[in-house]
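Student:
Attend to each token:
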Amino acid sequence: MPQAPVQPVAPHPGMMPPGMRAMTLPKILRIGIIQGGKIVEERLVRKRESVTVGQSTKNSFVIPTEALPKTFTLFELLSNGSYALNFTDGMDGRISLGEQVLALPQCKQGMAHRKGQLWQLPLNDKARGKVVVGDATILFQFVAPPPPQPRPQLPPSVRGSVAQTLDWFLIAILGISLIGHFGFVAYLRTVDWPRKPNLEEVPDRFVSMIVKPQPQVPQTKVVIQENKQGPEVKKAGGGGNGGKKGSGVKKTAEQLAAEAEARARAEAERRARLAEQARAMGVNMALGHKGEGGNVANMLENGSPGGDQEKALSGIQGVGVARGSGGGLPGIKVGGAGGGGSGKVAGIGDLRGGTVGGGGTGEKGAEKAPKGFVRKGETKITGGELSDPNGVGTVIGQSIGLMKSCYDRALKANPELKGRITLVLTIKINGQVGSAEADDNDLGDDVFGCIKARVMALRFPPAKGGEAEVKIPLIFTK
């Protein structure tokens, strides 16, 4: 049987001799940059791609010269895999394409062709030359790619092993910590933790000691018997006769329902009547509490009903709800705290006419001292400048209580005292009060002296560029 011919296999470039490998691999560009008479860079372009030069750092070769734009493609890779040299009319140089050496201007006559504003000259693997751009000279040639140099490595004696690079002290600490954690978890799993037992798991002899027996409540049984006149109801069970036979009273179901409804209606009417009588007595005694210190007079003092009515009504004396000692219906208790009554419990019959239980009318209480009210007017800055103009009004508003205490003390001596004080304050750079005067003073020197002492201790927003003068009107009323 004939055998198929064996196809020749091309040897791998790495297994070929250096001379044969250089003949098979395509040549690469070798580019050197000379600037200022010195070689500034030389490189082998191993990757077959276009080479750019210019001032930008993104170019293949960075050449800081004004003769080149920011990016210029000097060697362009064509579609067939070969290179072409791009040059402009302002560039100079010499090119060798094998045996012929030509200047760049001569290449324009037949060998190079126009491409926009550039000239493009195709190159072969034997081409070499130089291109002069400003003060920079670019040298190039095609050379066989040298074998890649292995990465330099230190000898093993210098590099050391992996064991020498480890921090054994840290590894020992981590090992001890890991062993300790696993040991603690294993200990927790072996501990018999106490738990609250379930009632079903407790023996019966202990259950009787824990659970207290509930007293048995005698049950009442209702037996309905049919007769000619209708169903009859009998009560049986553990009653007051110790479980003996009942007294023999028999009632029909309709009679029992009617009696229950009548009792509920009577109870509701009685409670409503008692509540209405107690409410009427409380209102009458509140309105009848006469005198200068009366509750109604205190509520309507100075014609203002905006006072605390709860406090005023809390002083009504002589009315309260009490219960009798026998556990009966609630009565009316007359003679509370501060009154002259005896405080006995009155029944329903005592509410008919006359006075109840000897309640007193109360005694006249001590008259309370008048209280003052302080209102701040519009703050004006008459001289200088403050860092926070609104901060002066804020500080004064927070200190109104200090002004009010001075006014309240003066009202004890003169209850009719009222008026206006216009404070003129000098505020320093650090925010302290330099001086405090009164432009208008209707309350006298004593009140102003008290207010001045408290204002001098305040701290205001600092002034800019010196001192600032501020006027603050304060209105004092009862």
Notes: The radius of gyration is 58 Å. The chain has twelve helices and 23 strands. Residues 15-143 form a domain with the Tumour Suppressor Smad4 fold (CATH 2.60.200.20).
